[in-house]
């Protein structure tokens, strides 16, 4: 096996760095969406409880 050219290795490492960075950014955005959805889900029981209290008090 021949030794790879150092400039080729540097280019491939830079490309790999870009791919990994893009992947992390994509995962971060997806996690942000999941956290937002979780926050909204956590609020729903309180909202339903308030609505049912209002309905129970309605004439």
Question: Can you characterise this structure?
Answer:
The protein is mainly α and 59 residues long. Helices cover 88% and strands 0% of the residues. It has one helix at 6-57. The longest helix is centred in the middle third of the chain and has 52 residues, at 6-57. The radius of gyration is 26 Å and the shape is rod-shaped. The N and C termini lie far apart (86 Å). The relative contact order is 0.06. The model has no long low-confidence stretch (mean pLDDT 92).
Short description:
By secondary structure, the chain is mainly α.
Total count of helical runs of at least 4 residues:
1
Order of helices and strands: H
Number of strands: 0
Largest sheet: none
The portion of residues forming beta strands comes to under 5%
Which value, in Å, is the CA radius of gyration?
Answer: 26 Å
Distance between the termini: 86 Å
pLDDT below 50 for ≥5 consecutive residues: which ranges? none
Principal-axis shape: rod-shaped
- Which bin fits the share of residues in helices? over 70%
Based on secondary structure, the structural category is: mainly alpha
Averaged pLDDT, please?
92
